[in-house]
């Protein structure tokens, strides 16, 4: 009987109003959102195509980069199209189950990307600190298992949130001041206590991306210690160069995400539209900039990408 009552209190759909207080600017905000999303999709597809096509790039570092590109595509595509639909007043409604599905894929791809970044940090650690064991450690089988582990870990972390949200009564509350569905945004519409949701969200953030960033930091401390022990200046520069692109991607990924997380929970004096903009920023900024960073910083990828673009572009007839 309780389940029936709860299901009757679940709204058939949510009404997403976009960025509260900035509704008059939605059409203008859609321009950078759309351009950033198109850049993210194009850049990650190009990167993924080049890595798959070029056999010389079928190495651990580049295979991890391909996984990162897939996670970026899922992360941005799960949220941005709906945000653009809201900005353009095409559709602001989303069914309850579609909202849970969007929330699930957005958070799963975020945690999976965090796991892949951790694996890439370990890859750089072994390559620099223990290069003789690199090929023995990162076999094709190990890389495949790491990819499956990233998916399994993110699935196990986020799957309980579906039941935590479904158990809540919403008393027909359906107006959500956001551009996409996320865990705490849905939970705050409930007309019952959400302390379990709050603590579960806090614990999963600290125990998944939080642990990842700590382990990544430890790996880079060990890498820097090994680099400073190198006698050759050229060897030091080469070692730093191989890690610089990954370090940039880590900063791009975690900085807006953690800033959004902590302001969402502790920055109560920060205007609500700033929270929503930050939440959209970490869904858009890393997927857009990651391909650019790796293409600019990695000479081999830069050469393969430029060669691929030249092959696609039709030769002009004179």
UniProtKB/TrEMBL annotation:
It is found in: Cell membrane; Membrane. Residues 43-294 form the G-protein coupled receptors family 1 profile domain. The keyword Cell membrane applies. InterPro entries: GPCR_Rhodpsn, GPCR_Rhodpsn_7TM, Olfact_rcpt, OR51/52/56-like. The chain crosses the membrane at residues 27-51, 63-84, 104-122, 142-165, 209-228, 240-262, 274-296. CDD domains: 7tmA_OR52B-like. Keywords: Cell membrane, G-protein coupled receptor, Membrane, Olfaction, Receptor, Sensory transduction, Transducer, Transmembrane, Transmembrane helix. GO terms for cellular component: plasma membrane. Its main location: membrane. It is a multi-pass membrane protein. One of its GO terms (molecular function) is G protein-coupled receptor activity. Coiled coil: none annotated. Belongs to the G-protein coupled receptor 1 family. PANTHER family: OLFACTORY RECEPTOR 52B6, OLFACTORY RECEPTOR 56B1-RELATED. Odorant receptor. This is Olfactory receptor. It comes from Dromaius novaehollandiae.
